[in-house]
Amino acid sequence: MKLSLAYLTGMIDEIPPEAWADLFEAAGWPASLAQKRGAPKHEQIVTALTNDELSDELLEALEVLETLGTSAGREAIEAALADQHLLPDVLPANEGDRVYALRLFIGQRQDTALADVLARAQIEIQQSVGSRPANEFLAKEARRIPDAKKKAKALLQATLDFCRERKLGDYVQVKAVEDDDVCVFRVHRSHHTKRPLAVVTGRSAHATIQYRPVHVDILRYDKVRGQLRIMASAAAAVEFYRCTLGLILFGDSAFFDGETTCSLRVLQERGRAALTDHTVDDVGRVWMTECLWEHGDRDRLHFRSTDCFRKIETLGLRLSEGELVQAKLKMQATGKSTRPVTITIRTPNRIEVRPKWQEPLAERYLRAIGIYNPKPVEASRDIWSMAPWRQPTETWRELLGRDRDLLIASGALEKTQLESIPHPEHNGAGNVLEAHDLGDGAIYGVSQVDDISSRSLTPTDLDGHELRPEMFRTFLRTRLNIKDGGKVWDGQELLHLGVLELGDQRIHVSYALRPLAPGAGARLREAAGADRFVVLLPTSHCDASELPVVVLGAPVPVLDRVSREAVKVCGLEQFVPPFLVAPEGTRLIVDKRHGEIWLDGVLVSEFRPETRAFKFIECLVRRRPSAISFQEISEHLSAGRQGEDIVARQARTEAKKFFQNALVAARKAFEDPLQTLNSSYRCWVRSHVIEAGGPRIE
Questions:
Q1: Distances (CA, A) of 183 to 132, 144, 218, 364
Q2: Are residues 500 and 398 in the same domain?
Q3: Parent domain of 636
């Protein structure tokens, strides 16, 4: 197998050439170095590892150097040595962390005790989050780099200025390595001065030594996909590299401010089913062992389990309500090693894969299930996703529109101050800034993520509103003109509003504040008693339910629409007033079933079936919006009196009188629904005929 350029890290330069030669003698020389032997130069090692076919044993060795060749890895090795009752001097104590791990790998090939030590150390270190994750950014568009070596010089000068400005020293080297699709910049730079206590060789007393450590940062640009991967040893350098590379390579510091690189939304929406929905070869079982879930601005729940989804289901948590911002996946991959691949994802742009040489397979898998480089989707919010209903003021405004002021006035939406908020420059990372009051109105937002900086906040930044469910229930009852029935909110997903009276029919209405949980049907029937019932769903994104539901598509219901939909789902069309059957917005209804005519929700009782006035109105409604001449109306009403328009005029006068009498009696404003146009009449308001055979919505 060949390693991609993405594998290049500082560890190549951290291991002396003679130690590399010892490793190659044990695990097999790369083909391009096999004839030279000796102690190869670091640049020759880079070329060999990225261009040659490597043996399985050499790949395993590189994994050991990457994972255990750190201070944490050394501690894991020493703990495993003690566990196996081995003396620490079985490995050379005066070697650096990388070489210490290298000597362990070479020794375990012949020593079964050391092989056990290696296995234990690897298991321990893989259970922790890696210290150097990859930050990925998408470009505005994929472009080629015209001259990588020339750009490397510009990057060197910019990095040197960065180090000097921040008192990090003045040592910088930049090397560019590229192939057809990928360009990698390897940046060696000095860092903050260290003055630790140390024992210097040849002296009996300790002393303070001074030095500047050299960090190796890897910047990888995929020319085909337009993706930038930054592996920086210091989190503060990530933002510098992102802006600087955009400016140097393409003349735009915001060039790598593209879409989110990774999203865990698919895991929230589909659960464990999302992990198996792929056709990637060489990938077996995949499971989630860690996740970080933000539930509003107050709660950040960190799960560690052999199966996080099972634990979340056991606790009855609704994962879709909050925001999943971090996850660790274990992936079984075909091959010699039985140890699973570990994939750590931190939205919106951080991915780490162990072992590193499995990155191409992990990337293909994450892309297939919709985590890596997800398809852009329009962000949508509803009352369900807002739980626990503490959100920024602007978020409530976007969701509720004009209804927000009504909810505030009713007390259902209460002003509050949020305890954590997103960073304005890092969308998709979650509520990473935790607010701390410094007194005298000063607030400091402490970042919960290493590579996102803390910053000062103002009280306005923390402005929010919180929904009070019981007050919201009272508001909804008023909104739907419900006066009877209902229950005080019990903390579950349903708000029982009470009985909606539609003519002689009674329908118990409940509002789903959250997605319906198992057993909701039994609770609804108990609350409704002998009455029919419906559930209002304040979202347009829901699966069909076996329960009678009215999909609102918005948080706040409208009485007319709820009444019509409730009649429909309960099958009450034959038993309710016709204005609840006719299309929404209809003002004039001719009900052939019962021989009635209605205007603006009022029964005009003076109309009688088969009379001249009734037929006159029916004729105009059926022809609407076209006009009908006096002569045609007269022929329709009285075929024996052709040529006279007096019949039409009399019917018009009589109908207008009936309408006016009914509206005045109902204390409603009268607006004549008929117009006279020269020698014709027309109905200008929205109208509808309900046929005798039953309701027919046109």
A1: 20, 10, 10, 20
A2: no
A3: 583-690
